[in-house]
Amino acid sequence: MAEAKQIMPDVLSIARSVQPIMLKSNNPQLQLPGEERKFVLVIMGTYYHTPTYGRLDVLRDVVLVVQEGKIVRIANGHEETEVQEEFGLAEVRQLKAGQYFMPGFIDTHVHAPQYQFTGTGTDVPLMEWLRKYTFPAECSFQDLEAARHRYSLLVKRFLANGTTTAMYYGSLHLQPNLVLVDSIERLGQRAVVGKVNMDRLSADDYIEDTADGLRDAEEFVTYTLGKKCSRIQPCITPRFIPTCTPELMKGLAEIAQKYGCHIQSHISECCGEVNCVREMHPEYASDAAVFEEMGLLTNRTVMAHGTLLSDDDIRHLARRGTAVSHCPLSNFMFGDAFFMVNHALSLGLKVGLGTDVAGGISPSMLSAQRMAVVNSRCIRAHKLAVSGGTTVTPEMEKDVITFKEALWLATVGGAQALDLADVVGTFEVGKDFDALLVDTNLSGTSGPFDVFEGEDDDQRFEKFINLGDDRNLIEVYVQGVCVKRGDEFLLDGSNVSVKATEDDSDRIMSAPTPVEPEAAYLDLAHRADSSDEAASVDVGAAAEQSEPPTKRSRF
Ligand code: GUN
Ligand code: FE
């Protein structure tokens, strides 16, 4: 260590301020361009992850080596000395008892500009909620200084909660989305980010002309790609079918194809939305059929919700390689049906987990995992209730998931959904080190739970998943870089913590006043919500179609 200090005192002191152990490697193969790449991160301890759905694997007392952000070696603890020699290390950091690494969470559905009103305004159905709370809030991001401040808080809050990767929706206007990308880049998160597009059925001051929308979407893509930041990828984002003309959707699909971009939208989310689409596009059997015709179902598409997808819709998405973001909390708030995770997986669908801030009222992926477990038990309860009996049959158990499956959804499932399965989600040689250091030693009121004598590592880790929160996440890593330690965001020049500062309270966001929905818009939502037989959701009928029909658009 002393020798390394003599060699490069400045770089080492900077590196040590952001990394627990970053030592100069003497291995010539590991001497990469750029001072910071000459350092490796080596930590001995216990690592939990879920490479297989339903199984929690533990790498106990291993030495994990990270070079240039990637895991290059996972050795047994007794090989510590060999690893030390191989990498020319002066020392290896040892985790304390009760501390574990786990993969960072991957949130596959977040509305970045809705973070400001998360936890409020859930009193009305989805179509009205958009008009009353969401569009005004998103529109207010045209104030770029406010956007900068709010997005900084957003990214910090998500990182603090262990979300190392997020799939973000931005807002309609181009500029605030660039601020969002800048904030993500600056704070070190990994993300897939999209500028929202909508050219119909929105508020007068929150809608775009089709041609402008397409131009801005492409500009957003080229701006983001121009950063050449391997952590951040642009995404094409038609908000959902009701707010997008076929011309817009087809144009967006072309941009996605031109740049090989991800695509995100909402699909078969609730009765109001599904019925609205049926009225607008009676020639299509389902949302999936519309998206198919528009060219928006690709192996880089993530569709949120999907609670009202028929089995044939699910099979079709699976054939296209399209994923669904399961958002259990927001489905409870705004959906009318359950998303059946195990059933969808059994049909070959890729499934990730999402908070759907602010439709979901928590930015925490721990909360999303717990909600996914509760959601699955609600399905069992529902089946039992419908049976009218008191016997829980194996069929009723099928959709019940445990914390292990929920954790898989929050890590591996998300990675698969975002086409990042080779990059993140588990601890494997060749993958990037996106990881959370969990400390279960916080006692009394300094932590969210207590540990008792005799509880082993597995029990402590399970307690963290079920009871823990951001206090337990003492270090957060993205691409091998510690982006947060304790209250400090290490890549943030200003080093502002998530905790409110005086500066923050001065700028407490003047939340836009909720607007009363306009009659024309409400009419449509209400008609869509009506129990009129022709308009009502009939999943069975849709299921009869073996392939979503590709019919002529009426526009
Ligand atoms: N459908 C269209 N837009 C949205 C949104 O912002 N949130 C949710 N939950 N559903 C939507
Ligand atoms: Fe959403």
UniProtKB/TrEMBL annotation:
Domain of life assignment: Eukaryota
Co-factor requirement: Zn(2+)
Start and end residues of each Amidohydrolase-related domain: 101-481
E.C. designation(s): 3.5.4.3
Ranges where the record places region Disordered: 532-555
Keywords: Hydrolase, Metal-binding, Zinc
Molecular function per GO: guanine deaminase activity; zinc ion binding
Similarity field: Belongs to the metallo-dependent hydrolases superfamily. ATZ/TRZ family.
Function: Catalyzes the hydrolytic deamination of guanine, producing xanthine and ammonia.
NCBIfam families for the chain: guan_deamin
Name recorded for this polypeptide: Guanine deaminase
Organism: Volvox africanus
